[in-house]
Design a protein that fits this description.
With about 280 residues, this protein is α/β, with parallel strands linked by helices. It has one domain (about 5-275): TIM Barrel. Helices cover about 35% and strands about 15% of the residues. The protein has ten helices and ten strands. The chain has an eight-stranded mixed beta sheet. A two-stranded parallel ribbon has the order 3-4.
């Protein structure tokens, strides 16, 4: 049973119009695919995180509700449709993410770059954040996305390294740190961001160690939220972390030098994303 501080009411009535419009444009959002608990709040104020490169992921993370399996070929028209959605809803800050596409030679980097460029051309005043997979640490792919000049490049480490074998099959903690480090090394003015979930069985000292690792690669922003299992088939919740501890992690992150830390039970990587640049 969830504790009282997680009894958040989700009002889907506030987002029915936006969902209908997105369906008409054939544009997907991670808000729906990942069953995000903030969907009503974000859609209600006209914010969304766009999901490109299809609905099926080639990784087998045990915590994620994104469908696994063989993906469809990339759709070259998708960047235009995302740009149309951004313009139609007059968004001021856009988050673009994707499933992991290990089946593609560039991991989908070109479609990321094309989406950023199309959104920027159609809506010049918008700030753009991309939440990217690790691209298997391809320098060419990381350069391609970085050169499209998004305002924030995010890549989530998700959890502590000791839990990767159980929760993040197919991913590598050190590789994720190197993704963030590569961007800062070759594009030092680009803001970087990462996120972790709590409640998977991590220890407090492990969380602090991850925060220090992220700062060692000059990561600018950090999000910390409570993991909530999408179903009984997914990785189980080991602990419901009290709000007080989220507050302590926020204080620690700020002391370590992060420019902005969002840390609370219902925080997700893209939640209130525009506030990181405020």
């Amino acid at each position: 049973m969830k504790p009282a501080w997680l009894n958040k009411k989700i009002n889907l009535n506030t987002c029915s119009g936006m969902k209908e419009s997105l369906r008409g444009l054939r544009v997907e959002t991670v808000c729906e695919q990942a069953m995000c608990p903030n969907i009503g709040e974000c859609f209600g104020r006209g914010e969304a995180t766009f999901l490109i490169l299809g609905k099926r992921c080639t990784r087998m993370c045990g915590f994620c509700n994104i469908e696994k399996g063989k993906p469809e070929p990339p759709d070259a028209e998708e960047p235009l449709r995302v740009a149309e959605a951004v313009a139609r809803f007059h968004l001021k800050h856009v988050v673009i993410t994707s499933v992991t596409r290990d089946d593609l030679s560039d991991g989908g980097a070109k479609l990321f770059a094309d989406t950023v460029l199309n959104v920027r051309e159609r809506s010049p005043g918008v700030t753009i954040e991309v939440l990217i997979p690790d691209f298997r640490l391809s320098a060419e792919a990381l350069r391609l996305v970085s050169e499209a000049a998004p305002d924030i490049i995010a890549h989530n480490v998700e959890t502590v390294p000791s839990l990767y074998p159980m929760a993040r099959q197919g991913s590598d903690y050190r590789r994720s740190l190197e993704v963030l480090g590569f961007i800062k090394e070759f594009f030092p003015h680009r803001k970087t961001k990462s996120g972790i979930m709590l409640g998977l069985g991590e220890r407090e000292d492990e969380v602090i160690s991850v925060m220090k690792d992220l700062r060692s690669v000059k990561c600018d922003f950090l999000s910390i939220g409570q993991y909530l299992a999408p179903s009984r088939r997914h990785y189980p919740v080991k602990e419901y972390v009290e709000p007080r501890r989220f507050g302590l992690y926020k204080e620690k992150g700020e002391c370590l030098g992060f420019l902005h830390v969002e840390s609370a039970p219902y925080v997700r990587s893209s939640y209130r994303a525009s506030e990181y640049l405020a």
